[in-house]
Amino acid sequence: MTAIEQPLIKTMYDLFDLVRTRPKMYLGNNGKTLTALMAFFSGYHFACLENKVKLDEGTPPYSHFVDWIPHRLFGKPNNLIWEFMENELGQSVAFSTFFEMLDEFRSLQPCLLASIQPSSKHQPTGKVLIHQGNPEESLPTPVPSNITIVGYPNVPVCFISYEYANHPPDETMDHSLKEALEFFKTDINIQISEWNFTEMGNDRIKS
Predict the structure, then answer these.
(1) How far apart are CA 61 and CA 105, in angstroms?
(2) Vertex 59 angle, CA 22 and 46, to 5°
(3) Distance (Å, rounded) from C-alpha 192 to C-alpha 194?
(4) Which three-class secondary structure string do you get for 80-143?
(5) For the whole model, what pTM was predicted?
(6) Cα distance between residue 111 and residue 68, in whole Å
(7) I want to staple 177 with a disulfide (CB 3.0 to 4.6 A). Which of 10, 48, 183, 204 is the partner?
(8) What confidence score (pLDDT) does residue 86 get?
(9) Which strand (E) or helix (H) includes residue 48?
(10) Cα Dmax for the chain
(11) C-alpha 47: how far from chain center
């Protein structure tokens, strides 16, 4: 007897591609909804974590997609985007729209907007706690050695990557480049004029 070849799932996108081919098999006869899809995805992801199985985000990162899609569809952020899509579009249309948007996003590449290597003059101001760690633990997070901000065409949301000399890297999201730059000005005293902007970054500052 020939063994059934199992699909290779290395990324979150691979998992969604698998469900797309046979939704009834993975989500049930009445499960072609975003609610069922995300429940299946969360369960699979949790099982991977529990069994120490690595499931990569894919390229571009799936976490970026979650913040990208509400801006792409509705022009504004939404923390409950899957529920909102079902309420606004209906279950069937929301389900098919999810995969259409997933395919569109996967065709994109994050574009560098701005970057900087902070110096010793860039220190926490005490006005924002993100770079000061948890005060209860008394373990302050150092100022990053490198900060890059990336974005995608036609949506304002941007993603900020922090690199540290002796600390794990981190990433956050902001709703616009202008908001991100104002945050850094307040947080660690980085003036807007000190950033290295790309052409796309310059366009977003001017708009």
Answers:
(1) 10
(2) 60
(3) 5
(4) CHHHHHHHHHCHHHHHHHHHHHHHHHHCCCCEEEEEECCCCCCCCCCCCCCCCCCCCCCCCCCC
(5) 0.87
(6) 13
(7) 204
(8) 96
(9) helix 34-50
(10) 69
(11) 21
Residue given tokens 């939704």 in the structure block: 23
In one-letter notation, the amino acid at residue 200 is M
In the block, tokens 């924002």 appear at: 128
The pair of three-digit structure tokens given for residue 175, joined into one six-digit string: 């709703």
Q: Which amino acid is at 27?
A: L
Q: How far apart are CA 39 and CA 141, in angstroms?
A: 35
Query: What does the block give as tokens for 48?
Result: 């991977």
Strand 158-163 and strand 170-174: pairing? antiparallel
